[in-house]
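Ligand: pyridoxal-5'-phosphate. Inputs:
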Amino acid sequence: MLNVDKQCDTFLYRQVIDLITENMESGTLLPGDRLPSLRKMSRTAGVSIPTVRQAYVELERRRRVESRPQSGFYVRHLAANELVLPTRTTAARPAHLHCRSLMERVYDGINNPDLVPLGIANPSMAKSAAKTLHRAMKRVMARAEERSLGYASTLGEPSLRRQIAYHYLDTVGAQVEPDEICITNGGQEALLLALSSVASAGDVIAVETPTYHGMLELIDSLGMLAVEIETCPEEGVTLEQLERTFKKHPVKVCMFSTTLGNPLGVSLPDEERTRLVKLLEDYDVALVEDDVYGDLRFDGQRPMPVQFLGGKARILTCGSFSKTAASGYRIGWVVAGERIDEIARRKRAFSCSSGYLQQLTLADFLASGDYNRHLKSLRPVLKRNSERMQALVAEHFPSETRTSRPAGGSVLWLELPKMVDAEKLFDAAMAAGISIAPGHIFSPCACYLNFIRLSFGHPWTEKTEEAIKWLGQQVAKLAA
Ligand SMILES: Cc1ncc(COP(=O)(O)O)c(C=O)c1O
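Predicted complex:
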């Protein structure tokens, strides 16, 4: 039963992982069963003991098995609905985007205000900052009416850059110079400026899998290739696989959501952040760090962006006010360190500068303390929405459905029973007045065919509940 193929280009330890997982999925290995000892597995599979150990340790990190002192490794009992991401049987290769037309249809759903909005990640809507932002805008107009209608400078309004620098100091104790920050048209332009300053057409970009579809579209539109790096449902990107990918493919840049990534809603642990800095240095790879959800942890401390842990010269950090305050303002930023002149040149060439009135308004919003007060009230609403959504999914979806456990942000990632085609579900949902995001668009190779992402970043209403129940019934029908 247990044989690895030494000619195959998949790493041996990963083949061992696949063998064990296949046995778990077929029911040969059940929760509570002991895995074969390292020695025995090494003999039967024809690989070394360290290779088997590496596979077992990785399975433990993925929470599929647990080690018991002096006893060995055992198959873990999964909690109800606990998400386990699929392992791949073949190593990921750099790829172009496969599902452009589906992505366009998803955006049609997102942009249609008549649909129940479960397809868009827009947490700032869950508890609107409209009143306080309007007051801030009025104050700005009273103070600087003429000026606010003109062009902002290329790098952006100094008082806003200073407030962003102060926010990093205040929340994570990081020292950022306002002159290292460039204000952008939302997080998406921040990602564009950052990526295009460190990579060119034809370059290979490492992304987490699953990953934010906007990154994949950006990589594709710049003529670059994405290579997927496995993630763990609790801890984000797997650094072991990242290093192996560095050895195998000429990766130029990593583009990772290190904090509360979309769609998993989990963050890279502190010790992994430090390891990531070292890996980037060892292999001379740049990092475009997407930190747009950084302020939206449900509980506890905001994690430190990787840039501030070292390797500043090769890391660019992107932020945005879209997720926390006002997506329509289209204000984001890049913390670019030494690359700021290059970023400024690109900003000038691509869009000159960003909306001045919005920048002045946000500077006032932050300086008045209203931003922090707003975050304080937004986070518990998102947490509550997340709990409600998870409870409804557990109640109304087939029992094989598994869900992520987001630690913040506004989206839930669902694995549906294998035979459910998420695209069919998407079409049926759109016809029934509900927008969702099918799993296909979160991978360049259109995997995750039986996954969907649901958003809880909007005010919770009866319609939200009905939509989730309806989706559960449809999934049950498609699975039958
Ligand atoms: C992970 C991630 N990064 C970046 C963005 C883009 O942010 P913005 O709306 O500020 O352009 C989004 C928006 O959905 C996102 O989810």
